[in-house]
C-alpha cells in the first residue's frame, strides 16, 4: 500500500485537491441564499396586488396559520451551524488549494539517489 502511495503520490494529491475545490465551490454556491427575486416572482406579486386592489380586500386569507416563533436559542444555534458550515467549506477549499500546490512542487533530485 505504501509503495502505491509513493508511486502515485502526485496524482493522488492532484485528484484530492481538485475534488476538494469542486466540492467546496459546489456546496458554497448551492447553500448561498438567493439574493433577489426573479422577474416571474415580481410579476406574480404585482398581479396579486392588482387583483386584491380590484376586489377591495387583501390578497391573504382572513384565516392565517400562525407559526410558532422560534426561540432565541434555536435561532442562535441555527446561525452557529451556518457559520460552522461556512468555515468547513472555506477549510475544504484551502486544503484543496494546498494539495494542488504541493502536487506541483517538484522535489529536487540528488545525484546520489541514482
Could you explain how this protein is built, in words?
The model has no long low-confidence stretch (mean pLDDT 81). α2 (9-31) packs antiparallel against α4. 4% of the residues are buried. This protein starts with a helix and ends in a 10-residue tail after the last helix. The chain has a domain at 1-32 and 71-105. The longest helix is centred in the last third of the chain and has 33 residues, at 72-104. The protein is built from four helices and no strands. It has 114 residues and is mainly alpha-helical. Keywords: Membrane, Transmembrane, Transmembrane helix.
Ordered list of secondary-structure elements with their pairings:
Layout: H1 2-7, H2 9-31, H3 39-55, H4 72-104
Helix pairs in contact: 2-4
Transmembrane segments: 12-31, 85-105
Keywords: Membrane, Transmembrane, Transmembrane helix
What is the compact description of this entry?
This protein is mostly helical and 114 residues long. The chain has helices at residues 2-7, 9-31, 39-55, 72-104. The protein has a domain at 1-32 and 71-105.
Report the count of strand segments: 0
Summarize the main sheet. Answer: none
Number of helices: 4
Q: Gyration radius, to the nearest Å?
A: 27 Å
Percent in helix: 55-70%
Which stretches are poorly predicted, pLDDT < 50 over at least 5 residues? Answer: none
Element pattern in H and E = HHHH
> What general outline do the C-alpha atoms trace?
elongated
Helix/strand-derived class?
Answer: mainly alpha
Q: What oligomeric state do these chains adopt?
A: single chain
How far is the N terminus from the C terminus? 24 Å
Amino acid at each position: 500500500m505504501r509503495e502505491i502511495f509513493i508511486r502515485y503520490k502526485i496524482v493522488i494529491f492532484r485528484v484530492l485537491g481538485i475534488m476538494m475545490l469542486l466540492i467546496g465551490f459546489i456546496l458554497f454556491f448551492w447553500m448561498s441564499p438567493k439574493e433577489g427575486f426573479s422577474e416571474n416572482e415580481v410579476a406574480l406579486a404585482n398581479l396579486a396586488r392588482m387583483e386584491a386592489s380590484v376586489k377591495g380586500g387583501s390578497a391573504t386569507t382572513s384565516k392565517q396559520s400562525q407559526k410558532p416563533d422560534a426561540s432565541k436559542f434555536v435561532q442562535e444555534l441555527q446561525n452557529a451551524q451556518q457559520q460552522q458550515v461556512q468555515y468547513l467549506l472555506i477549510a475544504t477549499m484551502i486544503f484543496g488549494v494546498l494539495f494542488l500546490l504541493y502536487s506541483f512542487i517538484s522535489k529536487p533530485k540528488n545525484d546520489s539517489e541514482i
